[in-house]
Amino acid sequence: MSIPTIDTVHDWNAIRADFPLLSREVHGKPLIYLDSANTGQKPASVIDTVDDFYRHHNANVSRAVHALGTEATEAYEASRTKLAGFLKAHRDELVLCSGTTFALNLVAYSWALPRLKPGDAILLSRMEHHANIVPWQLVAERTGAKIKVAEIREDGSLDIDALYAAMTPEVKILGLAHVSNVLGTVNPVREICRETRRRGIVSVIDGSQAAPHRALDIPSLGCDFYAITGHKMCGPTGTGALWARREHIAAMPPFLGGGEMIKEVRFEGTIFNDGPHRFEAGTPNIAGHIGLGAAVDYLTAIGMEAVEAREAELLAHATEALTRIDGLRILGTAPEKAAVISFLVEGAHAHDLATLLDLEGVAVRSGHHCAHPLMQFFDVAATCRASFAFYNTHDEIERFAVALTKVRRLLG
Ligand SMILES: Cc1ncc(COP(=O)(O)O)c(C=O)c1O
Question: Can 384 be counted among the known catalytic residues?
């Protein structure tokens, strides 16, 4: 198959060269990193920003009046503004936190726990990551609410009719991935949120796998909450954010108590900070979030539309290359799909495939991908998953296919 070149503006080889790690070798072979859905690689500008913070500006935020304290606070808050711009949101709607897991737990404990009653239901899709399942189970146990499941079709797309049919009056919350980390399925969040709003259901969208790969305008999606994680979008680990509608931010009690989240503390009672700051107790990941600001600058300079187009090209190529391999089955063939390919090879265990691919320099993930209910649906214990980012190349895809053919022969 010839791959159409649809992008004459970007020099993708030069962009790839911004990522120092991608030039290393593994087991004596050039690294082919196909695990970006797990965590993304970091451009030098992000690494340098974190390094620069610790070398020249390190201080705590919002506490000290000295020069370093002011510099740290300004840089940290500038990152909130940048991230808000990236998501087309307002900075007062963004709670900075350690990532999607924290963000979803914050909604579960702060918004849902005080509101849910016995008999209420939380609707979750079959394709959710454990981070958008387990917090809801914990809250359901404590409130007497129950979990309902919205099923998927064989191709890994959400069964929209079944989803709407499942939105019965007892459903108070919908937890939904924007993009599946296993199947790559892109869910029609805007359309679904129109329906949740009509029915008074609060929508909690897990955007972990969407924010790194597509241009987002979160307020226009019509959801109530949207969670993202920084390490999958070129940023440092332990960073991320919860976007929440202002009315929710104002109505939610704090989740964690401590420094930073208060206006005044007396033993008789505490007055909490306004806005997102009252969910940000304690010293945050300052350097990490400043690094995330640099990641946002980096992605913005490339342009998320270009990222999406580049990754669509890589997905088309990789899908075609893998279907050349005998006995290989792709799980997840929904029409709207991000650059993630889960696959199985007849007669080979996913872990053996991944181990042997590693010896060829190819990093893929194997396992359940924190999605046990999805594995149950496909009746498999594990899959191999190759996930791509704009910094991957067509040449890497060809070399991946050659390595997989070799590995398949070894295991066959
Ligand atoms: C869809 C999805 N949701 C949630 C998470 C959890 O993200 P984090 O571990 O950064 O909190 C991940 C990470 O793998 C994910 O892919």
Answer: no
Residue 2, pLDDT score: 41
CA 389 to ligand 1 center in whole angstroms: 16
- Secondary structure class of 350 (helix, strand, coil): helix
Q: Give the chain's residues under pLDDT 50.
A: 1-4
CATH class of 12-42+303-411: alpha beta
With a Cβ cut-off of 6 Å, ligand 1 is lined by 99-101, 129, 131, 177, 181, 206, 208-209, 229, 231, 370
DSSP E strand stretches across 49-153: 94-97, 121-125, 146-150
208: CA distance to ligand 1 center in Å? 6
Domain limits of the chain? 12-42+303-411, 47-301
- CATH fold of 47-301 reads Aspartate Aminotransferase; domain 2 (3.40.640)
> Ligand 1 centroid vs 305 CA: distance in angstroms?
23
The angle, 0 to 180 degrees and rounded to 10, between the axes of the packed helices 394-411 and 350-359 is: 120
Query: In this predicted model, what pLDDT tens digit does every residue of 341-378 receive, in sequence order?
Result: 999 999 999 999 999 999 999 999 998 999 999 999 99
pLDDT of residue 1: 38
Q: How far apart are CA 249 and CA 251, in angstroms?
A: 6
pLDDT of residue 3: 46
Angle at CA 250, nearest 5°, toward 244 and 253? 95
